[in-house]
Specification:
By secondary structure, the chain is of the alpha+beta class. 22% of the residues lie in helices and 34% in strands.
């Protein structure tokens, strides 16, 4: 499997939006073929329920510290390698303005009805969170949006689940509760661009 960035991307323009807002939504991040293959892989992943006081979703770890996927014969190995490839990390360095990004951790995620991720900051060494959206169809009333709050009792913005789009965020964020009547699963690969501690 070959995963590739869309060659039409303009990282300088994207970096300008990220610098201004501390977050950016990048549609058509991958080539069409890459996005279609990646969607199929994530949809068919062997998920495990991840739950705690502040989160509930299905996850499948691809890489914790930039290491290779455990099964080199599996197509997800190519995905983990792409997320830690020079083109993808160079793109992240350009967008965030942080040349110290050394690797990306990653997990495939599936949010079903009732799932959520409460508001959080990223820990030391985490430069910015990313969400590689792989959800072909979504309605706003299904919830599951990536939300931002810059002061108490106020959402400053959000991104709905989408297909073949990358969100990069360097601010407090959360994934809103997925409605019980949601007609699809929110699929993505998410993680952090990280620098050495």
């Amino acid at each position: 499997m070959n995963v590739a960035l869309n060659p039409a991307l303009d990282p300088v323009r994207v970096a300008s939006a990220f610098t201004r807002d501390g977050r950016v939504h990048i549609p058509q991040i991958l080539t069409k073929d890459s996005a279609a293959c990646l969607h199929s892989l994530v949809r068919e992943s062997d998920f495990a329920l991840r739950e705690g006081l502040h989160y509930l979703y299905d996850g499948h770890v691809l890489s914790r510290d930039g290491e290779a996927y455990p099964d080199p014969t599996h197509d997800l190995s190519a995905v983990a390698a792409f997320l830690n490839s020079a083109p993808f990390l160079d793109f992240a360095r350009c967008v965030t303005g942080n040349p110290g990004i050394a690797f990306a951790d990653a997990q495939a995620t599936r949010y079903r009805p009732g799932h959520f991720l409460s508001q959080h900051d990223d820990a030391p060494g985490r430069v910015a969170a990313y969400v590689l959206n792989l959800t072909p169809r979504w309605r706003p009333d299904w919830g599951g949006a990536l939300l931002f709050s810059d002061r108490p009792s106020h959402f400053s913005g959000g991104y709905l689940p989408a297909f073949n789009a990358l969100n990069i965020v360097a601010a407090k964020h959360m994934v809103g509760f997925v409605s019980p009547f949601a007609g699809a699963h929110r699929l993505s690969i998410s993680g952090w661009f990280r620098s050495p501690l």
